[in-house]
Amino acid sequence: MEKRGEDILNAVIDSFIKTGSPVSSSLLYENFDFGIKPAMIRHELENLTELGYLEQPYHSAGRIPSDKAFELFANQILIEETDSSLNSEFRKCLSCSNWSDLIELFSNRLNILSALETEDNHIYKTGLEVLLDSLNWDNRNEIRTIVRDFEELDHRIENLDDKFFETDAIRIFIGKKSPVTESEELAVIAGKCEVDGEDIILLAIGPKRMNYKKVVKTLRGIKENK
């Protein structure tokens, strides 16, 4: 993909994450300076759609990112984002290994569902209401799937392949690629952290338009907490 196409794709994803609405060429022209006119931006959007990075909900509507686009965007963040972010409330939870408070804080600050597994296979989870509030839609079938995902989360985490926990790298799964959720509308960010000599697995589960940068920064902060 050429640099201009990549810049336009990232602008579409950023705009969609912020608004949840399809992104048009006119909106991009008004809010970003690509050095080209709306007709050329429209051409770039058509090309990105043909490449599978964008989707058009209905004719003449703006574009929304596909799973392929979210995956590319998220992996770029993993490569480019080197800093971490952790405030005193998180540090306090970590200092006394207060896992239930940690994931509640994690969920509320990032508007996600979160789960944590300890070395002795104890699983904590919270944030279903927070996640449903952040989705802002009324697809009953999808809501049922997400509720079922939450209910079965313990069992799915317990049955993950051991190889899933071998790497210390933060990993991101979009839609159907998630090993612990079935909803096509969700993404999962997973990381293995060591706290006072104990390994924990922390999962951030949110809508595909979650704030990946903020979640990754916070997760890195927990991993690097001293």
Describe the structure.
49% of the residues lie in helices and 16% in strands. With 226 residues, it is α+β, with helices and mostly antiparallel strands. It folds into two domains: 63 residues, Arc Repressor Mutant, subunit A (Orthogonal Bundle), CATH 1.10.10; 141 residues, 2-Layer Sandwich (Beta-Lactamase). The strands form two sheets. The protein has a five-stranded antiparallel beta sheet with strand order 4-3-7-6-5. A two-stranded antiparallel sheet has the order 1-2. A hairpin with a 2-residue loop joins strand 6 and strand 7. Helix 1 crosses helix 3, helix 2 packs across helix 3 and helix 5 runs antiparallel to helix 6.
Quick structural gist:
It contains 10 helices and 7 strands. The protein is of the alpha+beta class. The strands form 2 sheets. It has a 5-stranded antiparallel sheet with strand order 4-3-7-6-5.
Summarize this structure as a short list of keywords or feature phrases.
226 residues, alpha+beta, Arc Repressor Mutant, subunit A, Beta-Lactamase, 2 domains, five-stranded antiparallel beta sheet, two-stranded antiparallel sheet, 10 helices, 7 strands, globular
Shape: globular
Cα distance, first to last residue?
A: 40 Å
Look at the structure and name the CATH superfamily of the largest domain.
GAF domain
The stretches of 5 or more residues where confidence is low (pLDDT under 50) are none
> What is the typical, i.e. mean, pLDDT?
88
CATH C-level class of the largest domain is Alpha Beta
Radius of gyration: 19 Å
- Portion of residues in beta strands equals 15-25%
The spatial strand order of the largest sheet comes to 4-3-7-6-5
